[in-house]
Amino acid sequence: MMHTAQPCGCTKDIGMSKARTTRTCREHGNLFLYDKALGRNSGASESGKPRRRSSLKRTNGFAASKAQRNKVKSLVCLGCGREGSEDGSFVIDPAHLWPKGKGGCDKADCVIPLCRLVFDGSGCHQLFDEGKLDLLARLEERDFHEAYAKEIAHPIAEHGVSLVALVRRLTGSDWEFRRVEYPAKEGAVR
Fold first, then answer.
1. Dihedral of CA 83/87/90/91: which sign?
2. Which residues of 91-119 are buried (b: 16+ CB within 10 A; e: fewer)?
3. Which residues pair with 94 in a beta bridge?
4. Are 154 and 120 in contact (CB under 8 A)?
């Protein structure tokens, strides 16, 4: 929405969706004039020069690949253990163990199944992305450890992620690791 100060002193909402070149103030009868051309199809920038189109290819950004979506379609959420609903209000999403923005990829081994509520986006996937879900404790369970061993190893093997960085991502905590020096026992060879 656009607010414009007018000669009559009014600051009114002129409604971008029903925008025209002029509109009349109901209280004072003065015309509202738009400050600049509206809409993407106007063909000119604020300076009056024609707009240049971007040479960048349009993509889905950081969206999961088709292989990743197919992989998690029939799996249960790794965070809470629930299945997706048939009505589509509760879905299982592919969540990147190592984010695409930090070098993650489109391979199926790069994701794990986490849930998302469609109407507001909340769920285990959002908690994991915000660093509020400890997946390491869940992955320690025998069944999950065996099932997701390739996924846990993928960021380290394929993307060169350090073990420390992966532990921080999986736990959502900023762990501080320190080297511990143990005193040498008498007669022990170093």
1. positive
2. bbbbbbbbeeeeebbeebbbbbbbbbeee
3. 113
4. no
Query: Considering all CA atoms of the chain, what is the largest pairwise distance in Å, rounded to the nearest integer?
Result: 99
Residue among 15, 38, 37 nearest 26 (CA): 15
Spell out the residues 6+ positions from residue 156 whose beta carbon is closer than 8 angstroms to its own. 162, 163, 166
**What one-character DSSP code corresponds to residue 35?**
S
d(CA 33, CA 75): 56
> pLDDT tier at 109 (50, 70, 90 boundaries)?
very high
Contact status, residue 88 vs residue 106, Cβ threshold 8 Å: no
Show the tokens assigned to 181.
């020096």
- Pairwise CA distance, residues 169 & 102, whole Å: 12
How far, in Å, CA of 151 to CA of 178, rounded? Answer: 27
pTM of the model: 0.60
Q: Does the pLDDT at position 133 exceed 80? A: yes
**In the block, which residue shows the tokens 């007018």?**
6
CB 4 within 8 A of CB 34: yes
Residue 11's pLDDT is 52
Question: Distance between CA atoms of 54 and 40, rounded to whole angstroms?
Answer: 13
